[in-house]
Amino acid sequence: MAIRKVVTSEDPILRKHSRKVENFNERLWTLLDDMKDTMYKAEGVGLAAVQVGILRRVIVVDVGDGLLELINPEIIESSGSLRDVEGCLSLPGESGTVDRPEFVKIKAQNRDGVWRRYEGTGLKARCFCHEIDHLDGILYTDKVIKDVSAEDIKNGK
Ligand code: ZN
Fold first, then answer.
1. How much distance in Å is there from the Cα of 34 to the middle of ligand 1?
2. The pLDDT of residue 10
3. Residues 43-89: pLDDT tens digits?
4. Phi, psi dihedrals of residue 125, rounded to the nearest 5°
5. CB under 5 Å of ion ligand 1: residues
């Protein structure tokens, strides 16, 4: 078990494009194990490899229903829209309001390179979108809807 350092917003690496994973080897498995440990330690629900300084298309997600290791993930279907408050382990102490699809279907490879499909609604869909955005250098702050506070959301505005 190894906890890696989570890079924060000042680090320009967060704006870079992550490369496709081609080799499903021990190096990848160590990265996945470390990302899992790092995410749980930080009490996050998702983490992208770029957040630990590795520009590879790898994310881990756990919204409370089990760990997903997603390699080269792509959104293949999405529908609906849900407005909610979002944060990021790379932007500690901040949050903002973002519209995300209510439902997404993605495809991704597992740690052995096998393609699988995954679906998510609500928080899980939000998490898929947020983490996949990281792989293209996009932060949630790029999508924040100004002038909407957490209070407004609670009140259904
Ligand atoms: Zn994030």
1. 17
2. 83
3. 999 999 999 999 999 999 999 999 999 999 999 999 999 999 999 99
4. -60, -45
5. 88
Please write the tens of the pLDDT for every residue from 80-115.
999 999 999 999 999 999 999 999 999 999 999 999
Interval between CA 51 and ligand 1 midpoint (Å): 8
The chain-wide mean pLDDT, for the chain, equals 94
Which segments of the chain does DSSP mark as H helices, in order? 26-41, 123-134, 150-154
Check: CB of residue 59 under 8 Å from CB of residue 119: no
**Structure-block tokens of residue 102:** 């209510």
Output the pTM of the full model: 0.93
Separation of CA 140 and ligand 1 centre (Å): 7
Token readout for 120 is: 């998510």
Q: Report the C-alpha gap between 32 and 16 in whole angstroms.
A: 20
Catalytic entry in 26, 94, 131, 151:
131
For residue 11, the CA-to-ligand 1 centroid distance in Å is: 13
Catalytic annotation present for 131: yes
Q: What are the structural domains, with CATH classification, of the chain?
A: 12-154 (3.90.45.10)
**Ligand 1: centre distance to CA 9 (Å):** 10
